[in-house]
Amino acid sequence: MVKEFNDIELRQDLESNLKIYLYFFSTGCGPCKTTKPKIEEFGRNINDIVYLIPSQEAKELQQQLKVSGFPSIVVIENKQFTQGGIGEKEIIKIIDGESN
Asked: What is the distance between the alpha carbons of residues 1 and 43, in angstroms, rounded to a whole number?
């Protein structure tokens, strides 16, 4: 399931047992433009949740998770950080590993 960022919804989803993928992107970023469609397709094919979070939103969340570049992905399961990555190659490696 793919969702646009909503702070209240995200807080509720974090209470679930689902794995949550937080995909941070910038609209002017070339690698973000190529990974975003892949992330959206990935999200449509899993039972967990993928949040699409534009760089100009959720600044506090980005600081808490130490997001330092775009595109970035952070994976949370059972309210715990499990993995993350910055850049197209790292993101593709994570979602490909989850798809298998």
From this structure: 5
